[in-house]
Batch of 4 targets.
Target 1
Amino acid sequence: MELRHLRYFVTVAEERSFRRASQRLHVSQPPLSRMIKQLEAEIGVELFDRSPTGVDVTAAGAVFLEEARRALHVANDAVEKSQRAARGDFGHIEVAYYGSVIFGVIPRLLGEYRQLKPRVAVRLSSLTKDRQIRALREGWLDVGFARYYRSEPDIASEIVWREPIVLAVHADHPLTGNTSVAMAELRDEPLIVFPSAPRPSFADELLQLCTSAGFSPKIAHEAEDLLACLALVSSGVAMAPVPVSAAIIKLPNLRFLRLARPEPQSSLYCVYRRGDNRPLLTEFLETVRSLALPPLPGFEACRGEGG
């Protein structure tokens, strides 16, 4: 039994005439009649009551008609979905992130993508950068996001966005009276950096920024992650340069100040397999590259909160 058998049967049943069905199907009537007889012989029941004025489905034919329509719908739906998948309009994409990127950029990137591609399901996982690389090589991850990646010959890496870095301080620190803080003013201040592992990471990016500003920073503590870092700042251990998206986090006595002269930035990267030209991934990457992200919520709005 082939799909055309079902299609021919449904057409004859709807037209209640072999002649009209043959015209609709653009086939001659004798082959159509033979096709229906072959179908009846295969399933072992008569599907039509034939008369000089036309045909009507039998009781068995009525049951078969319902199931045949369902089968044709499933087949047509499968074709349509595969065609949409080939265009990048249907399917799912596996996305992973690491660390503080989840607090600002990633939710908005994915939100914008969902608006553009509502039929594509996005599955989001938290994976370390090394695990992202392994998952890409294993084939089940499509794209990963983090602030820093090692160079890998089989993995493509590109900058998605550059995020301002601000200074997280305790509410009682003398610098909270300033509208901005120059990078050079951090020269003698104890700093908290994160993450403590894996390295290289945002912590190393921060060390390089301090070096470019002409000083070697005094590291008071290496925190496990952004939340641990801000908790230490909130408790008065030291201050910490952090991505501006961290300003959405509210903790007691936590304030955020603008860093300037120069205004440091942290780059957000995405990684994917080199040579992976699947339409769904290509469409996702093109969408990410074309997104015009609005500025992150100003940290000034958070300066008076959290304490």
Note: DSSP finds nine helices and twelve strands in the chain.
Target 2
Amino acid sequence: MKILVTGGAGYIGSVLTGRLLEKGHKVTIFDKLFFGEEPLKQYSSDKNFRLVKGDINSGEDFSKALGNNESVIHLAALVGDPACKKNPELARKTNFDATLKIAHLCKEKKIKRFVFASTCSVYGFSNSQQLTEESALNPVSLYAITRLYSERALRVLSNSVFNPAILRFGTVYGLSPRMRFDLVVNTLSMKAATEGKISIFGGNQWRPFVHVSDIVDAINLVIESPVEKVAGEIFNVGSTEENYLIKQIGQVISESYPLVKVDSVDEIDDPRSYNVNFDKIKKTLGFRTKRTLKEGVKEIVEAIKSGAIKNTADAKYYNHLI
């Protein structure tokens, strides 16, 4: 299959690129390369790999990259609450306006397979026991709002020719060629490795955690599933068993690394709380996650301690610092 991945040099995209190439797909990456080309260098010699540098906000750039591709996986965005809060105008332009623009272009080109990367952050804050794709949405950040509005716009555009699949990712963690340390599990794992202590703010907020490699597995599964099974569908991506209270991350870390000091802070810097159900993607597509939070913590700590990741304070690891 000929697949275009927007934002393919990013945290998820740089892992996805390798997986799609392993599957034998012809992969075109369309990316502004805001964080450089390094995450994709390992794929440059693959005959099925093509890199197009361009701005997602430019319809002309996107049209050139789209070419004769059959499928589009739309990951490109200004990702994360801090980055969007720092650049609200750019967030709206990149996350919503650009999504609408490329969706129209894909509809004109009759692209049947269009996968949109959304987030479980659209649930925001909920006192419900567990949230499904049918639950009420309550986004509490600009990032989540841009994702929700994009979801709605895509569904309005849907028809028999263009019918996107929407994936709401859980809170991501794990190693990636374009590593991030502004994600809660990655941040705490990094601090455990470099400082020997971590701080848990609040602690009673629920989050559904999912490894970046499991997200990539889900995207690949959706791309390769029969169109009629995924077209127009919304899927939460993660595992029901991997919902944790934030304070439980501290417990997971201290179990593996007893010498790490865990401080509890009453102040809550992020009020989001949502416990998510992932039965739909499991029942419809047979998707199951393969990695656990404990394994993710260990791989990050070991990568830092081994020297595989150096200078964790480098701005390239933080979306809101670039």
Note: The first strand starts at residue 2 and ends at 6.
Target 3
Amino acid sequence: MNSSSEPSNARKLMWRISYFSSISFLAIIILTWLHVDHHYNPNVDHLISVESAQKNLVDKLKKSGINTDQPFTFISTGVFIQSLNFSSSNNVELTGYIWQKLPSTKNTNQPIKPSFIFPEQVAGSEMKLAYQEITGDETVYGWYFNVVLRQKFDYLDYPLDHKTVWIRISPSHFDRSIIFTPALDSYKSTEIGHVFGVDEGLVLGDWEIDETFFDYKTVAYDTNFGTQFKAQHYEYPELYFNVVVKRKFLNSFIINLVPLLTVAVLLFALLMTVTVEPKKREAVGFNFTGVISIVSALFFVVLISHIQLREQFSEDGIVYIEYFFLLMYFLMIMLIINTYFFSRGRAVSSTFIMADDNLMPKLYFWPFTLGVMAVVTLVTFVF
């Protein structure tokens, strides 16, 4: 009696180990997801005051080898975003207002014409002067814009990705004595981590805003554009307005991960029907042809979802969620191989890992599946 109970107790212990390891791997995955989704480190280099903007600009000018003692014309420039939409993986459609403060024409011998460009702007964009107001010695010009900006984004962390959408604002001519400065005094608060310069009713769909900020980025040119722009000044600081957004993880989880987890559960259920005992086979309806049919159906479900995902990020490498699709393909292949050998009879099934009525594959299915997912998650987001 003791000898018959020992195998049963050993099997129970192995199943408990399998359950415990699976739950541990699942906990690692979920905790990593929560950490990445809820923890964002604000950009510490952004401009929060007029003084910090001036200091940052001077440092970048000196670093580029530009003489800071020469006379510059500083034009205060502000941005307000009313809508933001990812029209494709690398195109962002934006609407809103941009304004500039310039010295009044009557107070200068050589009036400066208000003008700017968005270098990443593509065809189909609209720009028009919306208002003009004289206040003291300055004239404020405000434009309404509806532009599509072509930008390169990294989607390798999808669906736990953060994106920085930037509006690069440059003078429309190559007068390097003109420098745009952020109109930080036009906003209620520009502190680190705050959101400003966007409409409170902004609809972002699958995204939400983490923060907005102005900064200067040094832009490198390999030409002087035929002007007297000196070769050593090919790197020049330009003004950027940045909107940092993060993807709503719940939406992507339901769309991508829930179907994959469902497929994994169905594959495990199929694996549990694999047996060499005739009575068990009859009870669960196990046969090799039936398994092939079900796995084929699941394969096309996964494949169609994978193709739709790949079409979104065709220019990127393998994104994070794609490793789960590859894992599903591997599990399907291994299940078919396992089922094939079992369908050949007891002589084959009593050898190698399929001994004891295919116990080892059944024990290792969830620890292996969740373990691979945990390793991929840690490598992608932690290490």
Note: DSSP finds eight helices and eight strands in the chain.
Target 4
Amino acid sequence: MLTNAQLATMVLRHVIFHDVPNQRGEGGQQVVLATDPTPIDADRRRLLKSKLVKSLDSKSAYGVTFQLQPTSPVPKLVRDWTAQGYNATKFVEASQVMAQHLYQVQTGAVSAGLLAVIDITVDNRHGLILMKLERDQGAEVKMKHEGQKSHFEMSILDSLILTGNTRLFKTAAFLRRGPGDDDFEMAACDNQHNATDTKEMARFWRKYLGCDLEEAARVSTAKFFGATMDFINTHMDDPELQTVMYESLHSELRSAHQAISPRAFLTNHVPEPVRHELRTFLEERHVPLTSFEKDTQDISGALRRLTYISEAGVRVVAPENRGELVVVEAEQIVVNDRLSKLGRA
């Protein structure tokens, strides 16, 4: 999973575009392959990076890992490319194979579009970004030919990427962190689907990227819950804010949502004074900030509540796994906790 800090220091070095139609003939019958990267000036490079960071740092982004036995050529191409220094010929060849493979899987209701393959570095580490763009009807896309070479003109960035209505509806980033085949920080984003809708996104990325969503859902869920609880108990001094955070966390995990978006939780439920601190706390503990499927089987006991009702109708509700907080005696119920706030039922 790429962190916000890594995305902020990302350097875009080279980008090449290919026009990839749907096999129904939408957008053209054949793949239009460039043979050279598109030259980009400093201003467009900066704006393109801003678009990518916004997409990959959004609640629609998910951590992914390479499949063990992918049918897609993308994992090998990414591994081979990021293990070497930049070579213009190999960069073009790898991007063309990726475009041809996209054409093979781009069937049925999958929209036609352009594939951008972007060579990046982060702290001198090599990476690659794949970006699929919706090609709006009427958007002008020009190919420039120079002898046997051809590339899409820089105006493609103005027409399809840098406009306010642009839909970068599928993006994936791979950053090498070591020499091994799985030594990568990776994320994929699909702006066509909600953060809670992982299945449709996962289906396309499995076929095209040869990737699966990162780690087991129950592991991600338990890590998020455990780290947030640790933060509440060790980094927050205000009992009232602790209670609000505690209730919001439990409400989120007991909701009917199929996925958890830590970024949305930070925005919607975490007080501004501690929001950045919690985000850093989660990243340091390798908790994904990208959305992931929710599975509470490992923390189900911590989410259940016990309700104690006295003869006079006093109700005490406590976490089931914190039995020491409430002691039931013959003549009284003792709550071993501090009062944080008063409220009305």
Note: Residues 217-235 form the longest helix (19 residues).
